[in-house]
Amino acid sequence: MHSATHQAIAAVWRLDAARITAVVARMVRDVGVAEELAQDALVAALEHWPREGIPDNPAAWLMTTARRRALDHLRHRKMQDEKLEEVGHDLEAQEALVVPDFVDALDAARQDDIGDDLLRLIFTACHPVLPAEARVALTLRLLGGLTTHEIARAYLVPEPTIAQRIVRAKRALAQAQVPYEVPRGAELAPRLASVLEVVYLVFNEGYTATTGSDWMRPELAQEALRLGRMLAGIAPREPEVHGLLALMELQASRMAARTDAQGRAILLADQDRRRWDPLLVRRGLAALERAEALGGARGVYALQAAIAACHARAPSSAETDWHRIAALYGTLAEVAPSPVVELNRAVAVAQAQGPAAALAIVERLRADPALRRYPWLPGVHGDLLEKLGRGEEARVAFLEASALAGNARERELMQERAERLKGSSSAGVDGSSAGVNS
């Protein structure tokens, strides 16, 4: 019984932790304290729900408990009576909501026109007082509820480094007394790049989870999409906002086709394109057009969206314009050089020019220390070796990729590919790609 309750708590927390933290942060004006108070609500649920049962609206229970903790915190700080009364009224309004959507309509009327605590939280965590890498790490932690391990994997850096960044970032925001608000005018641009990067990484974690038993975490991808659409509304003249939104819409259009009925991963070449969402494809292509019309065709996100658009427009993998995709990755490597970009370019080169041309790129990348623990590097390597008929070498590469994989479905995929090659010294081309563009 307790196990089922704990699973329910974990599921609710995973979906709503960011919203709870955001609402509490608006009350206490300190993101570090807000996260602690939200965690207190989680502990309370772990104490009460196994005895008393899961409440009818568990998310509202957690929200109300966290807000009460925040109210207690404000009392202990001996805030002015009028501020305490205002917060108390706000709490009563929240408790009166039967199914809260966590955008407090009563407060929104007397705050700015964004009316979204999550967006305020992102911009607060992305304040210029913090180094860029700290902004991203902190916001990923607060917004997506990602662990330090997941963030470290996303950045290909040691986990203790991420933990230190988060702790120092919270301390710096508190010391600087950073206002909890969405910036306007000239203050928006310096913080927008970090916000876009955060939304992008949260989407990526939803699109392909770094850890756990599921190939995807759709709720994170949907949250990133929602935030991207809001950003496009508040910064309509920023081409990279539309570029990022285009990329996410186009990638999200494939999500229903990326797993089978058992939740197993289906790579891009094997997906049933009839299951791609045509509405999201249209939205993505329209957002890409806006980004390019605003002069942002060479933006980091717009270039990736242009690559996704090549896939979206192609009736099949075989009919995809791989030469254009390889060229776009080449441009992306000029604009934002990265070993991961180069690995993706190798996947496109393999399709456009053959696996031998791509193998030379991948073998150079195997010496790059930044990719030492990156499972898709040996995965792509194995795919190319298999296509070249070097079956045993490919099997070893897939086993290496499986050992590095943090996601159970990713690990399963690599193990299956290795198993198919067991006992063979050569193998035929199966037409699939183990690249990250899945």
Automatic annotation (TrEMBL):
Residues 122-173 form the RNA polymerase sigma factor 70 region 4 type domain. Residues 423-438 have a biased composition (Low complexity). Signal peptide: none annotated. Residues 414-438 are annotated as: Disordered. Residues 19-78 form the RNA polymerase sigma-70 region domain. Coiled coil: none annotated. Residues 191-291 form the DUF6596 domain. PANTHER family: BLL0085 PROTEIN, BLL6612 PROTEIN-RELATED. This is RNA polymerase sigma factor. It comes from Ramlibacter alkalitolerans.
